[in-house]
Amino acid sequence: MDIEEEEQTRSIQDEMFGGLKARKKKLFPVNENLKDLVIDEWADADKRLYIPREFKNRLLFNPEDTKLWDVVPKVDIQVAKVVKRTTLPFEDSAQLKEPMDRKIDGLLKRAWEVSANSINTNIAATSVARSLCLWVNQLEEHLRQDTPKEEILASLPLFKMAASFVADASAESIRFAAKTDSLTNTARRALWLKPWSGDIASKNKLCALPLKGSHLFGPVLDEILEKTADRKKGFPEEKGKKPLPFRKTTSSFQGTPRGKGKTGRWSYPKGGKGRGFLFNPNSKPEKQ
C-alpha cells in the first residue's frame, strides 16, 4: 500500500529494554477520498439513499433469500391497537399522533432500508472475495504444474472483474454505513427536540442540519441561536407554550390551597367535619 515508515536508530539501551513498552501497531491509512465519501452522506440528513444503476444491476438476489431483511418490519397488531383503537385490527392501521414521533419512526425505517442494502452488498462482496481467494490458490497450482501461459492469461479478466467488484462493493458499504449514521443521528435529534415548544417546521430544519460528528447538532446550531436569541438562554420558546413545571402538570389535588380543611393525604382532618352533609350523619339538611 506504499505506506512509508520512519526507520529509527536503536541504541544498545533500546535493544535491552525496548521490549518493555507497548509495541507500535501498523495502522491503515484513511484516504481523503474515503473521508469525503462519508462527509457527503452527512451533509444532507434528509437526502434519499442513491445507488448507482450500474452497481445495482450487479447486486441481484432472489427476493425469497433476502426478504428477511429487505422488508421493514411492520408494527404488531397488538401494539397498533394501543396507539389508536380501530374497529378492525389491520396491520399498520394506526399512526403515531405526535409529528416528531412519526418523523422518528420514518427515519428509523429508512435506516433499516439502508442497512438492508449494506447487508446485500457485503454478502455479494464476501462471496466474490472468497471465490477470488480460491482462484488464487488454483492459479498457484497451475504455475507449479507449468500450465501454458495462454491458459493462465485467459483467466486474468475474471480476476480483474472480481477485484473490481470487491473494490466497488466495499466503497458502497462505507457510503451505506455513513448514511445509516446520518439517519440514526437525525432520529436522535428529533427525539431531543420533541419537548421543545417550537413549531414543527423549525424542528424539521434543525433535524436536517449537516452532521459534523462530535455533537448531536454541531457548530451550525450555535450560529442559528446567535441569530435568533442569546445563546446562553438556549432555545427560543413560543409565547404561551412554555412547558409547565412537573408539579403543576400533575394531579390537581396537589394544588389544593390550604385552609380548606384538606391536609396531608386525607380529604379532611381526622375527627373534623366535612362540607357535604351526605357523609355526616349528625348534620341536618337546611331548607332551601
Please characterize this protein's 3D structure.
The structure is a single chain. The chain has ten helices and no strands. It is mainly α. Helix 6 runs antiparallel to helix 7. The longest helix is centred in the middle third of the chain and has 46 residues. The N and C termini lie far apart (101 Å).
How would you summarize this macromolecular structure in one to three sentences?
With 288 residues, the chain is mainly α.
| Outline type | extended
Low-confidence stretches: 248-280
- Helix percent reads 40-55%
Average per-residue pLDDT, rounded, comes to 78
Largest sheet: none
How is the secondary structure organized here?
Blueprint: H1 12-17, H2 32-43, H3 53-56, H4 63-70, H5 77-83, H6 99-144, H7 149-193, H8 200-207, H9 219-228, H10 246-249
Helix pairs in contact: 2-7, 6-7, 7-8
Characteristics:
288 residues
